[in-house]
């Protein structure tokens, strides 16, 4: 695979780099537009979306990144990264912007205090067996899915927690912390196909 990146402004960057490298990809942290220009795909990690948003504008990478997303670069966002990819963010902090690309509305911190963090198994037909063990940490939920996006996974109560659209993939949960590699493989497949 061509070189891929992990957006390294804030959040669990190291975990994603480790998964990608474990799958045989050359993966680098990306902070600056010059680094973005050298990668063929990007993971946006979990963390705090309002901070990632602020820093991405401060580092001047938000606009080049929007352009790459619009041009079809494969991107995988987990948790805060999913929020960054959403066209609409609900319960955002004042002035918070997303990069957009995914035709969805995502609500931040949708599980409230009681359920700040939880784990559950998800059956995801596209990924086959076994079920995905999903860890949610102050996670967002996909509240509405527009016609261009499709649902990849939902909780038993119907709440949508994974979506994809063309070269974009987003999960509310964190596969990078549980040894679950199928989402990263799916992302790398897209990178290979786009090359
Ligand atoms: N609550 C965070 C946010 O709004 C996301 C949490 C996470 O990435 N684990 O960005």
UniProtKB/TrEMBL annotation:
E.C. designation(s): 4.3.3.6, 3.5.1.2
Enzymatic reactions: L-glutamine + H2O = L-glutamate + NH4(+); aldehydo-D-ribose 5-phosphate + D-glyceraldehyde 3-phosphate + L-glutamine = pyridoxal 5'-phosphate + L-glutamate + phosphate + 3 H2O + H(+)
Active site positions, chain numbering: 79, 174, 176
Residues the record lists as binding L-glutamine: 47-49, 108, 137-138
Keyword Lyase in record: yes
Keyword vocabulary terms for this entry: Glutamine amidotransferase, Hydrolase, Lyase, Pyridoxal phosphate
SUPFAM superfamilies per UniProt: Class I glutamine amidotransferase-like
InterPro entries (alphabetical): Class_I_gatase-like, PdxT/SNO, PdxT/SNO_CS
UniProt GO molecular function: glutaminase activity; pyridoxal 5'-phosphate synthase (glutamine hydrolysing) activity
Superkingdom assignment: Bacteria
Pathway of action: Cofactor biosynthesis; pyridoxal 5'-phosphate biosynthesis
Family stated for the protein in its record: Belongs to the glutaminase PdxT/SNO family.
Biological role stated in the UniProt entry: Catalyzes the hydrolysis of glutamine to glutamate and ammonia as part of the biosynthesis of pyridoxal 5'-phosphate. The resulting ammonia molecule is channeled to the active site of PdxS.
Subunit structure: In the presence of PdxS, forms a dodecamer of heterodimers. Only shows activity in the heterodimer.
HAMAP family (UniProt xref): PdxT
Record protein name field: Pyridoxal 5'-phosphate synthase subunit PdxT
Organism, scientific name: Protaetiibacter mangrovi
């Amino acid at each position: 695979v061509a070189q891929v990146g992990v957006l390294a402004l804030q959040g669990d960057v190291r975990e994603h780099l480790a998964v990608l490298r474990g799958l045989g990809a050359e993966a680098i942290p990306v902070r600056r537009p010059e680094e973005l220009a050298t990668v063929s795909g990007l993971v946006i990690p979990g963390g705090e979306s309002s901070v990632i948003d602020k820093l991405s504008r401060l580092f001047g990478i938000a606009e080049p990144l929007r352009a790459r997303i619009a041009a079809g670069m494969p991107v995988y966002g987990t948790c805060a990264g999913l929020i960054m990819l959403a066209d609409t963010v609900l319960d955002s902090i004042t002035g918070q912007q997303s990069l957009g690309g995914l035709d969805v509305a995502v609500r931040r911190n949708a599980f409230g205090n009681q359920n700040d963090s939880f784990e559950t198994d998800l059956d995801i037909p596209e990924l086959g067996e076994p079920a995905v063990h999903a860890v949610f940490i102050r996670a967002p939920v996909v509240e509405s899915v527009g016609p261009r996006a499709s649902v990849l996974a939902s909780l038993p109560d119907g709440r949508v927690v994974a979506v994809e659209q063309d070269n974009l993939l987003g999960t509310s949960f964190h596969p990078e912390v549980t040894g679950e590699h199928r989402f990263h493989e799916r992302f790398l497949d897209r990178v290979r196909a786009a090359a």
